[in-house]
Amino acid sequence: MNYLVLIYGQDSPSEDAWQAVRELTLLKDELAGTGELVSSEGLAVPAEGKVVQVREGVQVVTDGPFGEAKEQLAGYFMVDVADDERAQQVAGRVSAIVGDRVELRGAVFPD
What we know:
- The protein has 111 residues and is an alpha+beta fold.
- 32% of the residues lie in helices and 36% in strands.
- It is globular, with a radius of gyration of 16 Å.
- Helix 1 packs antiparallel against helix 2 (84-98).
- Strands 2-5-1-6 form a four-stranded antiparallel β-sheet, covered by helices on one side. The chain has a two-stranded antiparallel sheet with strand order 3-4.
């Protein structure tokens, strides 16, 4: 079953964040080795993002930055694991690496 582990962070990464990136890369490699990794990426800061929507049949693109928030979506792991317990184990490891909570969400349409 597919699960998404959402990682939140600050707009300005600290030196600790770069150490976390190195450790997350090792976890990414480990999960790829077990066949559980679907995908994983760090995301650009919100100021580099865009909002895309269609209004009255016309596509409108708006540049960031967006609403004020202390935490922003910083990255994710999409994993394909046997069950919820394993997904929680992976999320726990990600949480330990980033030193903060992560959000774990299952896919709507399981395999």
